[in-house]
Amino acid sequence: MHELIINNLEEISAVAAQFITAIGESRVIAFYGEMGTGKTTFIQAICKHLGVTDVINSPTFAIVNEYLASETTIYHFDFYRIKKLEEVYDMGYEEYFYGDGYCFIEWPELVESLLPDDVLRVHIKERPDGSRSISF
pLDDT below 50 — which residues of the chain? Predict the structure, then answer.
Protein backbone atom coordinates (compact mmCIF):
# COMPACT_ATOMS: atom_id res chain seq x y z
CA MET A 1 0.00 0.00 0.00
CA HIS A 2 1.26 3.45 -0.95
CA GLU A 3 0.33 6.73 0.67
CA LEU A 4 1.07 10.20 -0.61
CA ILE A 5 0.22 13.43 1.21
CA ILE A 6 -0.77 16.73 -0.37
CA ASN A 7 -0.26 19.44 2.25
CA ASN A 8 -1.32 22.32 0.01
CA LEU A 9 -2.10 23.11 -3.63
CA GLU A 10 1.50 24.16 -4.28
CA GLU A 11 2.53 20.51 -3.75
CA ILE A 12 -0.09 18.90 -5.97
CA SER A 13 2.02 18.85 -9.14
CA ALA A 14 4.93 17.11 -7.40
CA VAL A 15 2.59 14.58 -5.79
CA ALA A 16 0.93 13.90 -9.16
CA ALA A 17 4.38 13.13 -10.61
CA GLN A 18 5.12 10.76 -7.72
CA PHE A 19 1.74 9.11 -8.23
CA ILE A 20 2.32 8.44 -11.95
CA THR A 21 5.71 6.88 -11.14
CA ALA A 22 4.24 4.74 -8.35
CA ILE A 23 1.33 3.30 -10.32
CA GLY A 24 3.54 1.73 -12.96
CA GLU A 25 1.53 0.11 -15.76
CA SER A 26 -1.92 0.68 -14.21
CA ARG A 27 -4.28 2.23 -16.73
CA VAL A 28 -7.74 2.04 -15.12
CA ILE A 29 -7.73 4.05 -11.92
CA ALA A 30 -10.77 4.47 -9.69
CA PHE A 31 -10.77 7.47 -7.36
CA TYR A 32 -12.83 7.12 -4.17
CA GLY A 33 -13.52 10.00 -1.84
CA GLU A 34 -16.26 12.16 -0.45
CA MET A 35 -17.54 15.20 -2.29
CA GLY A 36 -15.00 18.01 -1.99
CA THR A 37 -11.95 15.89 -1.16
CA GLY A 38 -10.17 16.92 -4.35
CA LYS A 39 -10.62 14.01 -6.76
CA THR A 40 -11.07 16.27 -9.79
CA THR A 41 -8.26 18.61 -8.73
CA PHE A 42 -5.84 15.69 -8.32
CA ILE A 43 -6.87 14.21 -11.68
CA GLN A 44 -6.28 17.62 -13.29
CA ALA A 45 -2.73 17.65 -11.86
CA ILE A 46 -2.08 14.11 -13.10
CA CYS A 47 -3.32 15.02 -16.58
CA LYS A 48 -1.06 18.07 -16.70
CA HIS A 49 1.88 15.93 -15.61
CA LEU A 50 1.09 13.52 -18.46
CA GLY A 51 1.23 16.39 -20.96
CA VAL A 52 -2.40 17.44 -21.43
CA THR A 53 -2.56 21.04 -22.61
CA ASP A 54 -6.36 21.26 -23.01
CA VAL A 55 -8.64 22.66 -20.33
CA ILE A 56 -9.31 19.84 -17.88
CA ASN A 57 -12.64 19.91 -16.10
CA SER A 58 -15.04 17.53 -14.43
CA PRO A 59 -17.17 15.51 -16.86
CA THR A 60 -20.14 15.62 -14.48
CA PHE A 61 -22.68 16.24 -17.26
CA ALA A 62 -20.83 14.66 -20.19
CA ILE A 63 -19.94 11.55 -18.10
CA VAL A 64 -16.61 11.23 -19.94
CA ASN A 65 -14.06 13.75 -21.22
CA GLU A 66 -11.24 12.78 -23.55
CA TYR A 67 -7.82 14.44 -23.39
CA LEU A 68 -4.80 13.97 -25.59
CA ALA A 69 -1.59 13.65 -23.61
CA SER A 70 2.01 13.53 -24.81
CA GLU A 71 2.05 9.79 -25.45
CA THR A 72 -1.49 8.54 -24.77
CA THR A 73 -5.17 9.36 -24.50
CA ILE A 74 -6.85 9.98 -21.15
CA TYR A 75 -10.51 9.30 -20.46
CA HIS A 76 -11.84 11.09 -17.40
CA PHE A 77 -15.14 9.67 -16.12
CA ASP A 78 -17.55 11.06 -13.56
CA PHE A 79 -20.31 8.56 -12.81
CA TYR A 80 -21.97 10.71 -10.14
CA ARG A 81 -25.11 11.24 -12.22
CA ILE A 82 -25.47 7.66 -13.49
CA LYS A 83 -28.90 6.28 -12.59
CA LYS A 84 -28.66 2.81 -14.20
CA LEU A 85 -25.81 0.60 -15.37
CA GLU A 86 -27.49 0.48 -18.79
CA GLU A 87 -26.27 4.04 -19.33
CA VAL A 88 -22.69 2.81 -18.95
CA TYR A 89 -23.32 -0.16 -21.25
CA ASP A 90 -24.73 2.21 -23.85
CA MET A 91 -21.64 4.40 -23.81
CA GLY A 92 -19.44 1.41 -24.65
CA TYR A 93 -17.45 1.34 -21.43
CA GLU A 94 -15.49 -1.77 -22.56
CA GLU A 95 -13.70 0.18 -25.29
CA TYR A 96 -12.46 2.62 -22.66
CA PHE A 97 -11.72 0.26 -19.76
CA TYR A 98 -9.97 -2.34 -21.93
CA GLY A 99 -8.27 0.04 -24.37
CA ASP A 100 -4.77 1.50 -24.32
CA GLY A 101 -5.44 4.89 -22.73
CA TYR A 102 -5.69 5.90 -19.12
CA CYS A 103 -9.14 5.81 -17.50
CA PHE A 104 -9.52 8.05 -14.47
CA ILE A 105 -12.85 7.31 -12.80
CA GLU A 106 -14.66 9.46 -10.26
CA TRP A 107 -17.56 7.91 -8.29
CA PRO A 108 -16.61 4.33 -9.26
CA GLU A 109 -18.90 2.97 -6.52
CA LEU A 110 -21.76 3.32 -8.98
CA VAL A 111 -20.13 1.04 -11.59
CA GLU A 112 -18.14 -1.26 -9.30
CA SER A 113 -19.37 -4.44 -10.99
CA LEU A 114 -18.05 -3.23 -14.38
CA LEU A 115 -14.53 -2.34 -13.29
CA PRO A 116 -11.74 -4.57 -14.62
CA ASP A 117 -10.02 -6.98 -12.23
CA ASP A 118 -6.78 -5.00 -12.43
CA VAL A 119 -8.35 -1.62 -11.55
CA LEU A 120 -6.19 0.48 -9.23
CA ARG A 121 -8.27 1.80 -6.34
CA VAL A 122 -7.20 5.19 -4.98
CA HIS A 123 -8.71 6.63 -1.81
CA ILE A 124 -8.52 10.37 -1.19
CA LYS A 125 -9.31 11.60 2.30
CA GLU A 126 -9.20 15.00 3.90
CA ARG A 127 -7.15 14.97 7.08
CA PRO A 128 -7.98 17.09 10.16
CA ASP A 129 -5.35 19.68 9.18
CA GLY A 130 -6.88 20.12 5.70
CA SER A 131 -4.19 18.16 3.88
CA ARG A 132 -5.14 15.23 1.66
CA SER A 133 -4.11 11.59 1.98
CA ILE A 134 -3.85 9.64 -1.29
CA SER A 135 -3.67 5.90 -0.61
CA PHE A 136 -3.56 3.09 -3.17
Answer: none
